[in-house]
């Protein structure tokens, strides 16, 4: 048992260590005051987001990019609150082109349908997706424009962070997202891109059409970002890049309760069995195995089947390599303040991740008042 345990930990260390090395290989990008010339269609699906829309709309108003070079396509997915009225009121004072579209439901995936609906109406070749609970940085589009003009790209994965609040649940989620973003960037650095976040994801319309959009992925409710990334990589991996720039970081809300967080992560985990990227599946298996090992080893130590020294060694090794990667992400995202709470998140995470993985194997899950099949 001890030999098997340390073998799993060794494989985990090699994986996370490779992401840390890859993180450094992805160069920081600075826009260098390149003149705006790229036109963008910003796609934002929403459902019952009256609470979050004012901040999003205000951030759109603060964008420095010329308003004649972008349009905002907000896709209403059967909202039952005041979301549409809030947008309409904002439109009266906005100089940007803003359109409200009704989601054309064709599948069991509302968000994929919403994005497809918007792309059919989009006037420009470059599509950028984000979420209604996000805040966009002022130089967001300027940075994308400069990156597109300086690189041969058809698909761009960009950074996302959680907005901080003064509680452990928020800090736990920030630490978790920092690890995911670290793995995302690191994957690009070792030429194995496998993660992205639909809150900050851009691609050319001609690429979307060339890979037939979300065709063959519509039976899974989530995954509008990952499945499209997989198709883009298969189409031409050389045109898929990561935009590592502080001026491109989109901020989003963390979940406000443990129940909503668990529901969100079950939704994320439910799509993993449908991944086509072998590296995604391998990474997920290694990470789950390492966390499951910590949970099982803790129980075996309690009942005396393995020594406490063995458990401590495993914890120290995993603690160190996780911290190494998260610390790199925290520096880039300017969220070093959460590192002092890392030990608490580290102790909770194995139980959390194993529970989510097990729960995701159930046939249905809840999200935004709807029930979805796995």
From TrEMBL:
One of its GO terms (molecular function) is glycosyltransferase activity. InterPro entries: Glyco_trans_2-like, Nucleotide-diphossugar_trans. Residues 41-174 form the Glycosyltransferase 2-like domain. Keywords: Glycosyltransferase, Membrane, Transferase, Transmembrane, Transmembrane helix. The keyword Protein transport does not apply. SUPFAM superfamilies: Nucleotide-diphospho-sugar transferases. Its EC number is 2.4.-.-. The chain crosses the membrane at residues 6-23, 282-305, 339-358. Belongs to the glycosyltransferase 2 family. This is Glycosyltransferase. It comes from Aestuariibaculum lutulentum. The lineage of its organism: Bacteria, Pseudomonadati, Bacteroidota, Flavobacteriia, Flavobacteriales.
